[in-house]
Structure formats: C-alpha cells, structure tokens
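Lecture notes, part 5. Sequence design as translation. It can be helpful to think of inverse folding as translation between two languages: the language of shapes and the language of residues. The source text, in structure tokens, appears below.
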C-alpha cells in the first residue's frame, strides 16, 4: 500500500455509520471557527469607538459585553465540538479494533505461521491509539484551524489586500519545504511503528514461555535481546522525532515571520494615517490567527502521517483473506447421532512453511460410522496433521476427505466444527472460571450438564477442592491447575459438547497412571455411539480400538486390530515391543 495521508481513506467504512454525528461535529466546528473570526471584528469597533472616541461608561460596557457574548459563544461551540469529536474518535476506534480482532480470529493457522501474535496485538493497541488521537482530536483541530486560516485570509483580503499579498508570499515559502519534510516524517513514522511491533511480538513470545526461559536461566539473554529490539525502535523513533521537530520548527518560524511582517507593515500604515488603530488591531489578530493556524496544521499533518502509517498496517490485516473459507452455498451434512463415516481419498498435504516435504502422501482409508480408530506411529508421521485437515485448519493440496460422502470443503466451517470435538495434546485453559472453561463449546449448558461432564472426565474431585469450586478463577492459561487437571478440563469440555465426531490427540499424555485409567474409561464411554479418532503414543491405551492405523512419513503403512498388527511383525509390532518390553 502506498504510504500517504490518503491511506486514511481506509477508515471511511468505519466513519460512514456516524454521518449524523459527523455533521453535528462539523456544525459545531464551523461555528467555533466563525466566532473566533468574529472576535477581531468586534475588537476593532471596541478600539475605534471605545478608546479613540468619547463614549460614556454604559456604551463602553456594552462594547465589552459584545466581546463577552462572542467569548461565551466560542466556549459553548468549542465544548460541543470537543465532546462530539471525542465521542466519534472513541466509537470509530472501538469499531475498528473489534473489526480487526474479529477478522484475525477467522484466519487459518497458515496466517499465524508467518505473523506473530505480538505484532497483531501491537496493531490492535498502539496503532488504534494513534488513529483515535487523529479522529478524536487532531483531525478536528486541523479542520478548525483550516477554516480559521481560510477565514483569516478572506478577512485580510477584505480589509487590507496589499498586506495580504505580502503575507501570502511568505506563506508560500512555508508550503513546499513542509511537503518535503512531511514525506520523510511519514516514512519514519511507519518504520517506527514496525519496530515497536517487533518488540511487542518478541515480548509476547517470551512471556508466553516464561517457565522455559527461567528453567534455562535465559532471563538476562532474553532481556538483552528485548533491549536490542527496543533500542532499534528508539533509534527509529528519534529519527522520526528529529524530522518532525524540524518540520514544526520551520512552520513556526515562517509563520512568525509572516506575523511580524504583517505587524510591521500595519504599523507603517498607522503612522502614515492610512489605517486606524482599530484596523491595525484587527489585522494583527487575523495575522496571528493565520500564523497559528498554519502552526497547528503542521502539528496535525505530522499526526495524520503517523495515523496514515497505522491505518496502513491495520488495513493490511483487514485485507488478509484466509484460504480456508465456507463455500458460497454449503451442503448440509446429516451428522447422525451415532457418528459419521469418514473417507480419505488419496490425501496429500504440504504445510505452507514446508512445501518441499509432504506431511501426508496419498492417504487412503475409511472410518465406519460409530467406530473408534487409533492412529499410531513415530513422531512426524502425520498424525496431528490428519486432525488439522479434519477440522479444516488446512486443505489438502490433492485428494478429498468425505463426511458421510460429502467433501468437507462443501460444508460450512461452522457446521463442520460445531459437530466435531477435539482434545489437543496441549490442553488450552482460558483465564475464566472452571464452569466457563468446561462449557466453552456449549455456552448455554446448564450447571447440571457441566457437573455431569466433569464427573465423566473424573475432574469433579479436584474441582470441588478448589476455593470456589466450579466458580474458581483459573488465571492466565490455567496456571492454577496441574497439567493433568488441565487435561481433564479439556476432556470434560469435549464430553459436554457431545459431538458426533471426536478427535483425541494424546488426550491422556499429561496424566499419571491412576488418572489415566480413570480418564481412559471415561473416554471409552464418551466414544461409544460416535466416530472417534485417537492419536496415541502409548499403545496400551488403544488396544480396544475397532481399528488401528499405523502411519509413517505421511503414509498409512499398516492397519488392523492390536492382535493382527502384532502378528504381522511390522512397524506396530516393533513399537509395541519397545514399549511393553520396557515395562
């Protein structure tokens, strides 16, 4: 995207819903500018009539009262403008932040392979704050000063056209250098925001892995890396500040020169008798308004340049479209309560970050409805990848996956994922209560349903020992729970969802022997009457499966029951020998 103030046009869809409020803010802004321009005209009459002519105290008081009325009107319209514009800034920024966040949540995992979550958070916070500053403050100040500047020029042309021509010549000198300096400020503003986002991404990654960092005593090393990153951001920010300071200083200097030139020429006119003292005062105030307007416009222009860079970064996120999307006209799937049939037809898949290595290569197989299939094999065989394809986190480069004869690409993502339950190898617990975490996949579930799911996952015993039971707040990523407890919360969540398709990725990996036996029994109960795929490294947990698929290097190399695979003497037999003999 081209870096320029025109990038702010990306905000138009967020501005349009508030046309009425924008019109009201524009009216207050215009009235505030007009009352400001009216002040010098009233001041002229006060000087010429009240100070140079013989007027009594009542007439003089009336003239000052007129000035007070102008000041009161200015105060009212300025306060109304501030409120409406600030409200717009907060509202538009909130809408923008919500839109970006909601859009990012719908991106496929391929997006997060190349985009760090810390960078996304930086755009949601720092960049939207910059936009809020412009929309809720700087932009209206710029418009107000633009109107005042234009009005001051009109009044100067009307009252003293010769002087206005001279002042205009000085202001022209201001414009062209300001444009050049503004371009440099814009580029440095975007670079500065990128460096801050890099530092935020680095901090987010390290803080999410703080136990690992501390276990390797890498605190100082990570702090040094972060310091180096923030130093890069500081260096770029200082260059931006230096360029903007030159821009602001230049505008103020030249505006002051215009003011002094106007005052000098006006003084000569008064001495020559061609101008009254009131007219001189009026001209001086108008020149001050014009000069200050240009100075403020220079500040606002710098803010707009920074906001333009922020808008570009946010629009980049909004213009990113996931390759994984629901079809325009999705087909309904039957989703029978007893489970669905899964069919894999020559499925081949490469991860976007590893295009030269196939994670699945020509996979073929069928899982009958209501059956439990265990998927085993060495690390990197493609087991978890298979689950990712079933959830449509990715699409295969070739081949098809069918659910009851319907390709999953023909189903809506919502329909597919609502009818699929998954317990990942690394359980995810959110920073809410136990109850909220268990009913994450079924928010409308009753308390009794939550309790039943917890009991089925053998989780109620430790839940009732927590300070507030089901209402206990679990903290960031469930830090108040052990690994096995988090696993059982995740299992209870899947049981409560009660999907016709259940995916278990090492669902008992974090449990001790006693808990594993209890949860294994619960999972066997939960898998009855539905189609279940189980990834397991410990072969003792899958012996009762209807079928066992043995995968290696992305291919299905063996399949059968536990006894049949042992009799074949292949890969499964060798894995079983290693595990059972080790015991």
């Amino acid at each position: 995207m081209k870096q320029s103030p025109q990038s702010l046009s990306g905000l138009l869809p967020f501005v349009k819903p508030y046309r009425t409020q924008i019109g009201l803010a524009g009216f207050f802004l215009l009235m505030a500018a007009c009352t400001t321009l009216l002040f010098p005209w009233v001041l002229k009459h006060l000087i010429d009539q009240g100070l140079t002519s013989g007027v009594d105290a009542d007439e003089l008081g009336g003239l000052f009262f007129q000035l007070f009325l102008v000041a009161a009107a200015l105060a009212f319209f300025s306060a109304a403008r501030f409120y409406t514009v600030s409200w717009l800034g907060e509202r538009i920024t909130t809408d923008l932040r919500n839109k970006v966040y909601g859009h990012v949540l719908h991106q496929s995992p391929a997006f997060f392979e190349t985009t760090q979550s810390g960078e996304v958070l930086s755009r949601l916070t720092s960049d939207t704050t910059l936009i809020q500053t412009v929309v809720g403050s700087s932009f209206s100040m710029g418009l107000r000063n633009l109107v005042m500047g234009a009005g001051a020029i009109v009044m100067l042309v009307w009252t003293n056209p010769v002087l206005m021509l001279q002042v205009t010549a000085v202001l022209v000198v201001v414009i062209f250098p300001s444009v050049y300096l503004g371009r440099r400020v814009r580029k440095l503003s975007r670079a500065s925001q990128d460096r801050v986002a890099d530092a935020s991404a680095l901090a987010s990654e390290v803080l999410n892995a703080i136990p690992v960092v501390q276990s390797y005593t890498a605190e100082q090393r990570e702090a040094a890396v972060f310091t180096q990153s923030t130093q890069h951001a500081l260096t770029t920010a200082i260059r931006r500040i230096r360029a903007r300071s030159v821009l602001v200083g230049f505008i103020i200097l030249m505006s002051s020169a215009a003011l002094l030139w106007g005052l000098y020429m006006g003084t000569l006119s008064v001495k020559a008798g061609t101008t009254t003292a009131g007219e001189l005062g009026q001209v001086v105030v108008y020149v001050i308004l014009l000069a200050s307007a240009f100075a403020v416009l220079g500040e606002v222009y710098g803010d707009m340049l920074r906001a333009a860079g922020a808008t570009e970064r946010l629009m980049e996120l909004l213009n990113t479209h996931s390759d994984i999307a629901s079809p325009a006209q999705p087909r309904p799937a039957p989703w029978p309560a007893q489970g669905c049939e899964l069919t894999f037809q020559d499925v081949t898949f490469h991860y976007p970050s590893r295009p030269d290595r196939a994670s699945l290569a020509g996979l073929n197989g069928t899982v009958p409805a209501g059956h439990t299939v265990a998927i085993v094999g060495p690390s990197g065989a493609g087991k978890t990848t298979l689950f990712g394809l079933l959830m449509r986190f990715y699409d295969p480069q070739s081949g098809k996956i069918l659910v009851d004869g319907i390709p999953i690409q023909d189903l809506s993502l919502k329909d597919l994922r609502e009818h699929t339950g998954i317990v990942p190898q690394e359980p995810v617990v959110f920073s809410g209560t136990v109850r909220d975490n268990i009913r994450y996949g079924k928010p409308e579930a009753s308390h009794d349903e939550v309790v039943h799911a917890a009991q089925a996952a053998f989780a109620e015993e430790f839940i009732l020992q927590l300070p507030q039971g089901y209402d206990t707040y679990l903290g960031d990523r469930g830090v108040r729970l052990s690994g096995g407890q988090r696993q059982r919360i995740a299992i209870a969540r899947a049981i409560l969802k009660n999907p016709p398709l259940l995916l278990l990725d090492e669902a008992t990996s974090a449990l001790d022997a006693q808990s594993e036996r209890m949860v294994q029994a619960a999972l066997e109960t939960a898998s009855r009457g539905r189609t279940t795929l189980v990834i397991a490294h410990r072969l003792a947990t899958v012996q009762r499966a209807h079928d066992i698929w043995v995968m290696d290097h992305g291919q299905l190399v063996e399949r059968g029951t536990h006894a049949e695979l042992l009799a074949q003497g292949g890969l499964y037999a060798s894995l079983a020998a290693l595990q059972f003999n080790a015991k």
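The translated text above is only one of many valid answers, since several sequences can fold into similar shapes. The chain has a mean pLDDT of 79.
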